[in-house]
Amino acid sequence: MGKGRRLMRPFFLFGAVWILSSFRLLKPALVVVDAGHGGKDPGAHGKVYKEKDITLAVALRLAELLRKDSHFRVILTRDTDTFVELVRRADTANKAHADFFVSIHCNANPKKDIHGSETYALGEHKSQDNLTVVMRENSSILMEEGYQRTYDGFDPNSEEAYIIFSLMQHAFLKQSLRLAKKIEDNLIEKTKRPSRGVKQAGFLVLWRTSMPSVLCEIGFISHPQEEKFLASSAGQEYIAQAIHQALRQYIAAGQE
């Protein structure tokens, strides 16, 4: 009998390891959803709407979808029209040991015919257009008290600062780019609008995060038709569904 128990011991150990591994895979992933801008920082302006209002509406809808999904837990960096410093947004994710950080924004361009979504990971900007987008989004720090000290003297309006910034290596770049691709693919499918692709640039809100992190420019508020879509309940629902589905696909791929 004692010999039989000794023979069975490895199988019990294997079973215990398998159960613990399965539990770890089934543990809900924590997503920090960041609604860009807010409060005294309106973000980009459309003809009628402000970026801060659209991003909050999409973030709240995405959070609702994630809460209904047993695969996820969710934290919002803001759930009202309040100003939140960029560094605090990243700190929220880091302190919570989040698995993903998703920042939601609206794009803008003086050329009113430009439209479509694009999703960014932290990295070197490859074009002047990318630099223009990141400089606009990073300018939010100018509204923060003592921003020079907080961001180590970083000047969001200096092209030279971005050259130095681009030399930094993001530990989760590969994973962030993979998530960004899934988000863009799902936005195409759900919204039936064009994608401007996956890109990289030096967004401060992504700089200090210690997990796969992306910034979604969900569309151009400067494009009249796209502004209406972004402000509509249907449009916000489709966008939230697309990001939710991308996160589902990402964690599913990681468990295969």
Describe this structure in words.
There is one protein chain. By secondary structure, the chain is α/β, with parallel strands linked by helices. The chain has a single domain, classed as Aminopeptidase. It has 10 helices and 6 strands. A 6-stranded mixed sheet has the order 2-1-3-6-4-5, sandwiched between helices. Helix 2 links the parallel strand 1 (29-35) and strand 2 (72-76). The longest helix has 25 residues, at 2-26. The two termini are 39 Å apart. Residues 3-25 have low confidence and may be disordered.
Q: Which key phrases capture this entry?
A:
256 residues, 16% strand, alpha/beta, 50% helix, Aminopeptidase, single chain, disordered N terminus, 6-stranded mixed sheet, globular
Q: What's the structural blueprint in terms of helices and strands?
A:
Blueprint: H1 2-26, E1 29-35, H2 51-67, E2 72-76, H3 86-95, E3 100-107, E4 117-122, H4 128-138, H5 147-150, H6 159-165, H7 173-191, E5 195-201, H8 204-207, E6 213-220, H9 224-231, H10 233-254
Parallel strand pairs: 1-2, 1-3, 3-6, 4-5
Antiparallel strand pairs: 4-6
Helix pairs in contact: 2-10, 7-10, 9-10
